From TrEMBL:
GO terms for molecular function: (+)-abscisic acid 8'-hydroxylase activity; heme binding; iron ion binding. Belongs to the cytochrome P450 family. This is (+)-abscisic acid 8'-hydroxylase. Pathway: Plant hormone degradation; abscisic acid degradation. It comes from Plectranthus barbatus. PROSITE patterns: CYTOCHROME_P450. The keyword Oxidoreductase applies. Keywords: Heme, Iron, Membrane, Metal-binding, Monooxygenase, Oxidoreductase, Transmembrane, Transmembrane helix. InterPro entries: Cyt_P450, Cyt_P450_CS, Cyt_P450_E_grp-I, Cyt_P450_sf. The chain crosses the membrane at residues 6-24. GO terms for biological process: abscisic acid catabolic process; response to abscisic acid; response to water deprivation; sterol metabolic process. It catalyses: 2-cis-(+)-abscisate + reduced [NADPH--hemoprotein reductase] + O2 = (+)-8'-hydroxyabscisate + oxidized [NADPH--hemoprotein reductase] + H2O + H(+). One of its GO terms (cellular component) is membrane.
Length: 463
């Protein structure tokens, strides 16, 4: 009995010492943390988030705790941000306090030196080089090549039942390669594509690097991609020609990037460019099929461009100026970006304890601006679930529309994405009709939200 009493006294003393120490160390921080719950130790609220539609999770939290709340997901304490002004602070005005963050396995696979993983001087240098290759001035020169890729894709779909997302991935991949490597390197395309497809299969697999695993195969394909790119670099150096594409921009940098840095960033840009653009195009085809009046308005706008070109005796091929005469189609893209919100949120990490709108965000905590919730808030967009491109006839309230992010890491490829979508829409709506195989209400995540089964459609030439 005495022994039990002694043990109890020792245990209680240890517990008291631990609690005093804990509260001295974290008490002041804890009391100022944003409202919310952290769930179970380690697992946190991961199960609650992934066992239901993520939007239901976010919506119920926002209702209960407001637009800044804490939770614990995938082993990390997080603060989620659903207010436009607070998201702007994280991404723009106080961006230096919140660095980008990705799981280590994803960094290894894409390449540690890729633009997304950095901030500061190295990031600024890369960003300048990437932006230079995707300015309107630069991409203006490749409109007719993009058009050839679009026409070729559409012809290959004629009279077939296609999985829209798969076909759009090929289209977006070919456009990305054109903007990265120009026309000359077309003969490397198939090899690059083959390796990239193996790499992407491993990207979402378990990060176990043992022979036979998808991850292992992906890491091998990653090396093969770097080898092909090194070959292209060496040929270009021998030829001593200048190129107006992303690879040319990287090679012309006076401070010089290493071949590894160039490879990581080329692979990174393909990764950023392909599935994002392909998902949006898939959603556009779905929304247009479901909204015949909008489809009719887009078709008339595109036919008008053909007519005007015929009347003025202009070349038949599309040019940059033509793509600036497509306001209805542009609003369809904007509304699709909003409704589909394929990047529901992004991740940042506090680099120090940050005082934030009256709360404390401790160093190392993840901070997630919730793009989708901002895009689906009825205060920002009335009847948010309704597909209504005409709402963009009036500019949205400041910081409420961020499909391409905001601030130092915002999307440098947004003009190219919009251009390739407009070019495809021009030929699709003027020459083809398509129908969905069945009413499509389901959504799959791969990892972006997509219509169920990648939207199977039947596509045929207009009579
Ligand atoms: C509809 C298609 C696209 C969407 C919705 C999209 C969206 C985004 C978003 C939201 C970000 C910012 C992520 C963050 O702040 O964490 C981003 C970054 C980026 N995007 Fe895009 N993107 C698209 C197409 C493209 C294309 C076509 C390219 C290249 C040709 C591209 C290249 C990049 C790169 C390199 C970054 C990283 C920028 C940096 O870290 O400084 N994206 N994109």
């Amino acid at each position: 009995m005495e022994l039990i009493c002694l043990l109890l006294i020792v245990a209680t003393s240890f517990l008291s010492l631990f609690l005093i120490n804990y509260f001295l160390k974290f008490g002041h921080v804890k009391s100022l943390l944003p409202p919310g719950t952290m769930g179970w130790p380690y697992i946190g609220e991961t199960f609650q988030l992934y066992s239901q539609n993520p939007n239901t999770f976010f919506a119920s939290k926002i209702k209960k705790y407001g637009s800044i709340f804490k939770t614990h997901i995938l082993g990390c304490p997080c603060v989620m941000i659903a207010s436009p002004e607070a998201a702007k602070q994280v991404l723009v005005s106080r961006a230096h306090l919140f660095k980008p963050t990705f799981p280590a396995s994803k960094e290894r696979m894409l390449g540690k030196q890729a633009i997304f993983f950095h901030q500061g001087d190295y990031h600024a240098k890369l960003r300048k080089l990437v932006l230079r290759a995707f300015t309107p001035e630069a991409i203006k020169t490749i409109v007719s090549e993009i058009e050839s890729i679009a026409l070729h894709s559409l012809q290959s779909w004629e009279g077939r039942l296609i999985t829209t997302f798969q076909e759009m991935k090929t289209y977006a991949f070919n456009v990305a390669l054109l903007s990265i490597l120009g026309k000359d390197e077309a003969h490397y395309r198939e090899d690059l594509k083959r390796c990239y497809y193996i790499l992407e299969k491993g990207y979402n697999s378990m990060p176990i690097n043992l022979p036979g695993t998808l991850f292992h195969k992906a890491m091998k394909a990653r090396k093969e991609l770097a080898r092909i790119l090194a070959q292209i670099l060496s040929v270009r150096r021998e030829m001593k020609q200048t190129h107006n594409d992303l690879l040319g921009s990287f090679m012309e940098d006076s401070e010089g990037l290493t071949d590894d840095q160039i490879a990581d960033n080329i692979i990174g840009v393909i990764f950023a460019a392909r599935d994002t653009t392909a998902s949006i195009m898939t959603w556009i085809l779905k929304y247009l099929a479901e909204n015949p009046t909008v489809l009719q308005a887009v078709t008339e706008e595109q036919e008008e461009i053909i007519k005007a070109k015929q009347e003025s005796g202009d070349e038949k091929t599309l040019n940059w100026a033509d793509t600036k005469k497509m306001p209805i189609s542009t609003r369809v893209i904007q509304e699709t970006l909003r409704v589909a919100s394929i990047l529901s949120f992004t991740f940042r990490e506090a680099v120090e304890d940050v005082e934030f709108n009256g709360y404390m965000i401790p160093k190392g905590w993840k901070v997630l601006p919730l793009f989708r919730n901002i895009h689906h808030n009825p205060e920002n967009f009335p009847e948010p679930e309704k597909f209504d491109p005409s709402r963009f006839e009036v500019a949205p309230k400041p910081n409420t529309f961020m499909p391409f992010g905001n601030g130092v890491h915002s999307c440098p490829g947004n003009e190219l994405a919009k251009l390739e979508i407009l070019v495809l829409l021009h030929h699709l709506t003027t020459k083809y009709r398509w129908s969905m195989m069945a009413p499509q209400n389901g959504i799959q995540y791969g990892p972006f939200p997509l219509p169920q089964n990648g939207l199977p459609i039947k596509i045929s030439l207009k009579k």
